[in-house]
Specification:
- The complex is a heterotrimer of chains A (384), B (324) and C (531).
- With 384 residues, chain A is mainly alpha-helical.
- Chain A is built from 14 helices and two strands.
- The longest helix of chain A has 30 residues, at 3-32.
- A two-stranded antiparallel sheet of chain B has the order 1-2.
- In chain B, helix 3 runs antiparallel to helix 4, helix 3 (44-62) crosses helix 10 and helix 4 runs antiparallel to helix 10.
- With 531 residues, chain C is α/β, with parallel strands linked by helices.
- Chain C folds into three domains: 9-247, Rossmann fold (3-Layer(aba) Sandwich); 266-344 and 430-527, P-loop containing nucleotide triphosphate hydrolases (Rossmann fold), CATH 3.40.50.300; 354-425, no CATH class.
- In chain C, the strands form six sheets. Chain C has a six-stranded mixed beta sheet with strand order 6-9-10-3-11-12, sandwiched between helices. A six-stranded mixed beta sheet of chain C has the order 18-21-22-15-23-24, sandwiched between helices.
- The longest helix of chain C has 16 residues, at 184-199.
- Chain C starts with 11 loop residues before the first strand and ends in a 10-residue tail after the last helix.
- The chains are: A mainly alpha (384), B mainly alpha (324), C alpha/beta (531).
- Chains in contact: A-B, A-C, B-C.
- Chain B binds chain C through residues 179-181, 184-185, 187-188, 191-192, 194-196, 198-201, 316-317, 319-321, 323-324, and chain C through 83-84, 98-104, 108-109, 112-115, 117, 121-123, 164, 168, 274, 276, 278, 280, 282, 321.
């Protein structure tokens, strides 16, 4: 199949998958929408859908009509920061064919470790934030050695191990917060405030975005995308990771250090998740108060699947998910459809993207068409 | 320390081990059967969440607990068949199918809960704990004669119907796997699908059957969570039991008895955690114990297995040198 | 000698008429093959690897359908669309790789798919054991019904396979190289059993390369070569030499221009390599040889005589029981592949799709897999993409890989071009030793010729080449000197391939002849006592 046709197929397939997910969403909204008659319900559904699909960027009001709103765009971009990192994290680990699902716990641990650095280790401004984020990344990189080494040394499932780690991380952090680290003067369980030196500053003056908080974290996230892309496609380590993922026997035969690189992939993945947690924490909050897993790991997983494990596609997939998520939030506010609809939409899209045989008949047609054209071309050349 | 041990030596403690193990045992049986058929279902967590929600809601609306139970089972089976469709027909990686179901099982169930309660109660509720009363739960059963025996009676009698069913199903699953044609086919398909299909066993049908069985067990597990363990459904109430079951399957060597023992170990770990908090320790320190035990268990199991393989190898090597 | 139609038509239990099979990739595996079976005979189907025996039998068992021709069983024209249809017409097959479930008992394997039940729910284990015992006794095939299949010896596994076919009503048994996995005792036992079956009116197709066995047990034989039948013979009317000549032989003689070799010092030295596989069969029996700079040493032999095991040992995919192997006096046994490669060893693997390439990666990514850490391809932490592009383009050009660009996925290429990608990498890594395992199997003529020429060229530039090939054309033409392997041993060593005939080769390959220990030992060049 030609490259262009391959691209066309991928795009059509993606669109169909998204449409199916939206169709499911529409049905669910229709069921949940208010109104007594079907007509009313339909109208409510239309309103809700409009909020979900248009709302993330445009404010709709009866008086002023529909107008673009920079704050909402900034909100979406800000929401992308943690999920870009978890998305990259999953990309790297899945590329080596390692089903490590520890990005969820990883981002929480990273956020926690960064927060502690920000509170308890005084440092000059500028350096402080960088060190804190690096500490967050390093902490998770270190933790990921556990599933990675257990996998390579003992063949323990990295999947089950990383899932268990998520829970352990969450409870241990909660324990530490409750027992030692909480600021007792506050009404709820949260840490002392971060030192100002550790804050990640906003990119532009907040007033431009009417209070939205888009920090330099976003720029770092995009930088991380580029670095991760370079690592995966332009460095020998990323290359080895990908070859192991495609054909481990081939990698071994070629003389690659398979075990070491499998560990490397999970350590790098851990670092990315941890650093993402730190950036999110220092950019968005002033003290640590997470008491549950934030869910960014699972969103990251969806993003990696949407992006086909390609780091460069991660920001687009992250934008898409953040947009939908914002849409669902708005829908919850204005149309009273519970915001958790996003989880169902996410699940459906995920399923269809991961389905290898989805629309396979259509692909077969394209392949046959390509082959026929090639034969025809070859014949023409022979005659000519 | 001695005092603490005294607390543990009570019948209540042993009673709670059994009670806590039951849902894990259901999920472990689900994991065992699909593994025997040659694949893994990591969506047990999500399946249990959906079943738990369906069970509690239907129980509330019909005012009958057994309709609730049936609804939970039906939900589990139906969803597992859909998972099978994606995995076997659309060739989605079965692990990713499981991940998707788990994703939906978290926020998605909350969404459904809110929508459904909004429609019927006029307000969106974030859990069904307000709707389910004791009478809508699956009943506890006091076993005649046994409950009069001191200590043992308090440990083994008065459990929930599903707790007894869990252990009964452990036996039945073992019988199914090793004494019935279906079990024979499941094991054959899991081990050598070519051999099975070469004698006319439909590999696909067996895989769907195994999948449906795992859905059924998840249905029981989910119903237990929302209609016995707790009164009503709440967000993320399964809290990793579906994942722990995967580990219990591996630790138990893929067999029912081993799986049951592993489930009891987790039950013990969790009951211990609860006791810890009872004597004033932070429950957050006790809560991760089952998860840590899982990792340790997996490691021990892996070491034992690797040693066994090594022994077999050296036995083969011995045979080799004798053959010279 | 062909026996023609001497027997009356209705005596044929199976007639395959003018069978042609063209696979979707265009390979014609069978061309107008006629094959028939008398009731109650043991019929040998012979031929080299790739001669089309398996394809023909797959069609009889319903695993494949013929492109043209018809299959008549018991006078009835059949469309054998699946194995179950074949089974229902009394055709059973004993596969070379057993179709058994290891953790189930013998009896359970016997009744799988047709399980006797009691109380409508449970397996009637007693009945299953009874059935097993009944058949076991009736056909005198001794098995232990209650033992798990994984615990029983290979010979018994095979009996279970035969019984499985019989219990399903097979009257015609296709046995695919049944003795390949058996020890000589087990083989003797099997022959008694087969003769017994024959006495009871069963018809047996016996696929094999082993002449002695065929002479001993079969009534008639059909010989195949390159997809065509070379005729049907009564076993007692032909000699081993005649069979060997019909079976082993070259149709087209392509000739590759080649100067006389001028061998230098020894590069690969293998001494007393011994390997017993997990079924206790000795696959390598004290193999010793040297490969010198500037020569191609060929290893000829029918497949399954230890060649695969030998290559596996040399590239550490397996470990031998004893013996040594060194490259330029450094031991290579047990070294990680990376270290073996660092010593200058290249391998063109037999199974190119599993080891040779990553099908889902680009040509470029495939050709640098062994050199991605090289200084010349890295600039600091990143790849030097220009150098990599240049390398890929150079190799594509030099090895005439037909592709759209270096970014095309290797899996999209044709077999010949895939193999060119493999050899481009393996030949261009400045090797001192190239292990070429079946380097041209299943690829087109153009690519074949290209790869052969390249091998000769490289050897003349001073590289040591070990060529393992089941293709007689290839080994005889390319090799400067040649080893024949049979039964895990070196059956013959020819210092010079000039003057070798197909006939001589056939006799050693099929085990009719074997050189003396001293003659074979000549291949260990540095052990030669000064005359």
């Amino acid at each position: 199949m030609t490259k262009r046709r391959q691209l066309k197929f991928t795009m059509i397939r993606s669109l169909v998958a998204i449409c199916i997910a939206l169709l499911v969403a529409t049905l669910l909204i229709l069921i949940s929408a208010g109104g007594d008659t079907f007509q009313e319900k339909l109208q409510a559904t239309g309103e809700a859908l409009k909020q979900m699909l248009v709302g993330p960027l445009f404010r709709m009001s009866q008086k002023k009509g529909t107008s673009f709103e920079a704050k909402r765009l900034a909100d979406i971009l800000a929401a992308m920061i943690p999920t870009i990192f978890t998305g990259l994290s999953v990309c790297v680990m899945f590329s080596a064919n390692q089903f490590n699902l520890g990005a969820e716990g990883g981002i929480m641990l990273g956020a926690f470790a960064s927060a502690m650095t920000a509170i308890y280790l005084p440092m000059p401004a500028g350096v402080h934030a960088v060190v804190a984020v690096l500490v967050g990344g390093a902490a998770v990189a270190l933790i990921m050695l556990l599933p990675a080494l257990l996998k390579t040394k003992l063949n323990v499932s990295e999947m089950v191990c990383s899932l268990m780690l998520n829970y352990i991380i969450m409870y241990v952090i909660k324990f530490l917060m409750n027992t030692y680290l909480a600021d007792k003067s506050r009404g709820q369980i949260m840490s002392y405030a971060f030192q100002e030196t550790a804050n990640i500053p906003p990119i532009v003056n907040n007033t431009v975005f009417s209070g939205a908080k888009l920090t330099w974290g976003f720029v770092i996230a995009i930088l991380a995308v580029i670095l991760c892309g370079l690592f995966m496609y332009r460095s020998r380590w990323g290359y080895t990771i990908r070859m192991i993922g495609i054909n481990q026997d081939f990698a071994k035969y070629s003389g690659m250090k398979v075990g070491a690189v499998i560990v490397l992939a999970q350590v790098v993945g851990g670092f990315l998740a941890g650093a993402g947690g730190g950036i999110e924490m220092l950019g968005r909050y002033t003290s640590f108060s997470w008491s549950a897993l934030p869910g960014y790991g699972w969103t990251g997983l969806t993003i990696a699947i949407l992006a086909g494990n390609n780091p460069y596609m991660v920001p687009f997939a992250a934008f898409f998910m953040a947009y939908l998520s914002k849409g669902c939030d708005l829908m919850a506010t204005y149309a009273k459809v519970p915001a958790q609809l996003i989880d169902i939409i996410q699940g459906v899209i995920f399923l269809f993207f991961a389905a290898e045989q989805f629309l396979s008949k259509y692909r077969q047609k394209l392949v046959v068409k390509s082959a026929k054209e090639e034969i025809a071309r070859a014949n023409l050349q022979k005659e000519g | 320390m001695l005092n603490f041990l005294k607390i543990l030596a009570t019948p209540e403690f042993f009673y709670s081990i059994i009670r806590i193990s039951a849902p894990i045992l259901f999920a472990t049986l689900a994991a065992i059967v699909v593994e025997k058929a040659g694949f893994s279902n990591i969506g047990l967590e999500g399946l249990m969440m959906f079943s738990a929600l369906a069970g509690s809601l239907v129980s509330y609306y019909t005012k009958t607990w057994y309709f609730g139970l049936l609804a939970a089972l039906a939900t589990g089976v139906l969803m597992s068949l859909i998972m099978g469709f994606f995995a076997f027909k659309l060739k989605t990686d079965i692990i990713l199918v499981g991940v998707a179901v788990n994703m939906m099982g978290s926020g998605g169930t909350l969404f459904l809960c809110k929508v459904i309660t909004n429609l019927t109660q006029g307000k969106a509720m974030a859990s069904t704990t307000g709707l389910i009363t004791k009478s809508l739960c699956i009943p506890d059963i006091s076993i005649p004669l046994l409950h009069q025996i001191p200590f043992l009676g308090a440990v083994f009698s008065g459990h929930n119907l599903l707790t007894y069913l869990a252990f009964l199903f452990c036996l039945l699953t073992s019988v199914m796997l090793y004494k019935t044609p279906l079990g024979l086919n499941i094991r054959a398909v899991g081990e050598n699908p070519n051999a099975a299909s070469s004698v006319g066993v439909s590999v696909l049908r067996i895989k769907y059957t195994a999948m449906a069985f795992s859905g059924l067990m998840s249905g029981f597990g989910g119903a237990f969570m929302s209609m016995a363990y707790a009164q009503g459904w709440s967000l993320d109430m399964v809290s990793g039991r579906g994942f722990i079951a995967l580990a219990a399957q591996a630790m138990g060597g893929g067999e029912c008895l081993g799986g049951m023992l592993s489930a009891l170990v987790f039950g013990f770990a969790q009951a211990l955690g609860i006791k810890f908090s009872a004597i004033g320790l932070d429950s957050n320190l006790a809560s991760p114990i089952p998860y840590a035990v899982t990792i340790i268990g997996l490691v021990i199991f892996a070491i034992v297995r690797n040693n066994k393989i090594k022994r077999q190898h050296s036995a083969a090597a011995l045979a080799k040198s004798e053959a010279k | 000698m062909p026996d023609g139609n001497s027997a009356a038509r209705d005596e044929y239990v199976v007639q395959m008429k003018k069978i042609t099979k063209v696979y979707s990739n265009g390979v014609a595996a069978n061309q107008e093959v006629d094959f028939n079976l008398h009731r109650g005979e043991i019929h040998a189907l012979m031929g080299e690897n790739g001669a089309g025996k398996s394809t023909l039998m797959k069609m009889l068992f319903g695993l494949e359908q013929p492109t043209s021709g018809e299959i008549v069983v018991n006078g009835e024209v059949l469309h054998l669309t699946s194995p179950s249809v074949a089974i229902s017409h009394g055709i059973g097959m004993v596969h070379q790789h057993f179709m058994l479930v290891p953790s189930l008992s013998v009896a359970e394997n016997m009744v799988l798919g047709m399980v006797p039940q009691k109380s409508g729910l449970f397996i009637d284990k007693a009945k299953a054991i009874e059935i097993t015992k009944e058949y076991s006794e009736r056909f005198n095939l001794h098995v232990e019904p209650e033992a798990k299949v994984m615990d029983i010896p290979v010979g018994m596994k095979q009996k279970v396979e035969i019984l499985k076919a019989l219990v399903r009503g097979a009257k015609i048994l296709i046995m695919d190289e049944p003795t390949a996995v058996l020890t000589s005792q087990e083989t003797a036992e099997l022959f008694v059993e087969l003769k017994n079956l024959k006495k009871q009116g069963y018809t047996i197709v016996f696929i094999s390369h082993k002449l002695n066995e065929i002479m001993e047990i079969t009534d008639r034989l059909t010989i195949m070569r390159r997809g065509r039948s070379m005729g049907v013979y009564n076993t007692k009317d032909v000699t081993k030499e005649e069979i060997s000549r019909l079976m082993v032989g070259r149709d087209v003689v392509l000739s590759v221009q080649k100067d006389k070799a001028n061998p230098g010092e020894t590069v690969l030295r293998v001494r007393d390599l011994e390997y017993v596989n997990e079924w206790n069969k000795k696959m390598l029996d004290k193999i010793s040889f040297d490969v010198r700079r500037g020569e191609i040493l060929g290893i000829a032999g029918v497949e399954g005589n230890g060649q695969k095991e030998l290559v596996d040992m040399l590239f550490n995919f397996n470990t031998p029981n004893s013996g040594t192997a060194t490259v330029n006096n450094v031991s290579i046994l047990g070294l990680p592949q990376q270290k073996i490669r660092e010593l200058g060893v290249s391998l063109v693997p037999e199974d190119r799709m599993i080891y040779g390439i990553a099908a889902g990666a680009s040509i470029e990514e495939n050709v640098i897999s062994d050199r991605s850490a090289d200084k010349r391809f890295n600039k600091g932490p990143l790849f030097n993409m220009k150098a990599i592009h240049d390398e890929a383009d150079r190799l594509i050009r030099e090895y005439t890989v037909l592709c759209k660009s270096r970014r095309q996925h290797v899996g999209m290429l044709s077999g010949g071009n895939i193999q060119k990608v493999v050899v481009a990498r393996e030949f261009s890594s400045n090797p001192v030793l190239i292990l070429a395992d079946q380097p041209t199997r299943g690829i087109d003529v153009g690519a074949t010729e290209f790869i052969r020429k390249k091998l000769v060229e490289l050897s003349r530039s001073g590289i040591a080449v070990l060529l393992v090939s089941a293709d007689l054309n290839e080994v005889m033409e390319l090799s400067d000197s040649l080893i024949v392997m049979h039964n895990g041993r070196i059956a013959a060593y020819f210092e010079d391939t000039a003057g070798l005939t197909d006939e001589m080769m056939g006799e050693y390959m099929l085990g009719l002849k074997e050189q003396s220990k001293e003659e074979v030992r000549r291949v260990c060049h540095d052990e030669k006592t000064p005359a």
